[in-house]
Structures are given as structure tokens and as C-alpha cells.
Amino acid sequence: MPGSVLVAYATRYGSTKEVAEKIAATLWENGLTVEILPLNSVKSMEGFSAVVMGAPLQMFRWHKDAISFLNQNQKLLCKIPVAVFALGPFHDEESEWVEVRKQLDKELANFPWLSPVSVSIVGAKYDPSVLGFPFNILPAMKQIPAIDIRNWDAVHGWAEGLVEKFEAAAG
Ligand SMILES: Cc1cc2nc3c(=O)[nH]c(=O)nc-3n(C[C@H](O)[C@H](O)[C@H](O)COP(=O)(O)O)c2cc1C
Description:
The chain is an alpha/beta fold. About 40% of the residues lie in helices and about 20% in strands. The chain is built from 6 helices and 8 strands. Strands 1, 2, 3, 4, 5 and 6 form a 6-stranded mixed sheet that branches. A two-stranded antiparallel ribbon has the order 7-8. Helix 1 (about 15-30) packs across helix 6 (about 150-170). The longest helix has 19 residues, at about 150-170. The mean pLDDT is about 95. The structure holds flavin mononucleotide. Flavin mononucleotide binds near residues 11, 59, 60, 87 and 126.
């Protein structure tokens, strides 16, 4: 495949970065050239032939850096395959997975020009003891127990599935 894959992420507490790293490693193991960057430090999209972008859901919204990235790169993102992932929900319960998918779909609906080749909901890592202001004073947030429901096998499998999609799009 000509060009490299950009794996770009937004994170507040680090868990999305870890998922991005797993995805980048999987693509690389499968023979793709990969660059991994925070979404807010992507200076140019030149040379990238596919993008994987991920960000957490926070207070029912997708991280603002994901929104800015899409707004700033519409022209180029229309020309190459884009895969999208989001972190959430807090609990491994069917109703929460459905709810998070709805939250993400609502965000993606603001970008009708974007047709992701794949969308993945990864599950949250959450620790109330590291919350910063103002979340650390919200009783509802403090009551949620620490969890990590990210499924690394699923992340690996999703990234492997992207290889074929990206190569097919490159011709
Ligand atoms: C203040 C706060 C608000 C959150 N709001 C949501 C939410 O609305 N929906 C959801 O599914 N997950 C929510 N989460 C869970 C995050 O998506 C999850 O903790 C994620 O792993 C954080 O990513 P990061 O470590 O890259 O910042 C929230 C987490 C925090 C700390």
C-alpha cells in the first residue's frame, strides 16, 4: 500500500492513547507503514493513505479534538479511507454499548461527508481517583467504581480487519 496510515487519537487520561498504540502495532505487524500522533498535533495529512482516528466520549460528547480534526481536514479525509473508534461505555452491559453507539452516531451525523470504513466502540477505562476539576466534585462521577473494560483481543481483531479494507481502497 503506498503511503502510510495515520493513527491519531485524543485522550484526557491516557487510555485512548493505549488503544491507538495497540492499533498502530497491529497494523505495523501486518506490513503497513504507520505513524501515530495526537489528533491536535497533526500538521499535515500529506503522505497518508488512510486514517484511524479515536477519541473518548466525555459527558455525552466526543472529545473536542476529534471534532476539530474532522472540521479541519474534510477535503483530504473525503479522499482516503477513515476508520473511527471511541472509548466508552463504563459498564459491559448491552444497553450501555447501544447508548454509546448512539452517542457516537449523533456526533458523526454532524459530518455527513464522512463515510467511515469501520466504526468501533472500545469500552472505557475509568478511575475516579484521578479525575480533575470539575469532574472530581461531581458526586455522580465519584460514585462510579474504577473499571477497565477495554477488550484487547477485540481491538487487535478490529485493527487486523482494517488492513484489508485499507489495501482494498488503495487498489
Ligand atoms: C469526566 C468523564 C466523563 C465521561 N463521560 C462519558 C460518556 O458520556 N459516555 C461514555 O461512554 N463514557 C464516558 N466516560 C468514560 C470515558 O470515555 C473513558 O473513561 C475513557 O477511557 C477515557 O479516555 P482517556 O483515558 O483517553 O481520556 C467519561 C469519563 C470521564 C472521566
